[in-house]
Amino acid sequence: MSSTNDRGPMVGALLRLANQTMTEQLVRWLETSGFSDLQPAHSAVFQPLWDVPEGARLTSLARQSRITKQSMSALVDHLEKHGYVERVADPDDARASLVRLTARGRAYAKAIRQFARECEADMARRVGARRIEDLRATLELLRESWLAG
Predict the structure, then answer these.
(1) Residue 107's closest CA among 82, 140, 87?
(2) φ, ψ for residue 40 (rounded to 5)?
(3) Residue 79 in contact with residue 85, Cβ under 8 Å?
(4) 79 and 105 Cβ atoms separated by less than 8 Å
(5) d(Cα 142, Cα 148) in Å, to the nearest integer?
(6) H or E element: which one contains 89?
(7) How big is the chain by its Cα radius of gyration, in Å?
């Protein structure tokens, strides 16, 4: 897929710009949501934990979020201090611990998913629901192909 006109942002830049806009909306929502002790960076913890209620090791969270173990540790420390996550013994390895959401963490995760649904509804109003459905399907296909290698 080539173009003779090499002007305007490429797909990666468009994704980055869309992400920046959504992050700005998230920051505004956090300030008024009752979760003002959180930052967008904390999504690196919540996103992977949403699908594993039993918890995950810090190293796994860091790998899934593509950040260093040290960065993930700092995020988890903040969330633990504010009651969003807890560290519990790993039943498969007594030397390790798992990070899992607390009741407060699950409440935030549900609230942020509702916020995300509202953002997606806004996008659908702007460009049409079918386009957003197609975008989601395309991004999921790309994600799956990248994961497959």
Answers:
(1) 82
(2) -55, -30
(3) yes
(4) yes
(5) 10
(6) strand 85-90
(7) 18
Predicted confidence at residue 94, as pLDDT, reads 85
* Helix intervals (H) in 3-149: 11-32, 43-50, 58-65, 69-81, 103-127, 129-148
Report pTM. 0.86
- 124 close to 132: Cβ distance less than 8 angstroms: yes
Q: Are 148 and 75 contacting, i.e. CB atoms less than 8 angstroms apart?
A: no
pLDDT, tens digit, for every residue of 46-56? 999 999 999 99
Q: Which fold has domain 26-148?
A: Arc Repressor Mutant, subunit A (1.10.10)
Asked if 92 contacts 77 with a C-beta cutoff of 8 angstroms, the reply is no
Structural domain boundaries in the chain? 26-148
Q: Which H/E stretch holds residue 97?
A: strand 93-101
User: Which tokens sit at 59?
Assistant: 């190293």
In a 13 Å sphere around the CA of 31, the CA atoms on its Cβ side amount to 6
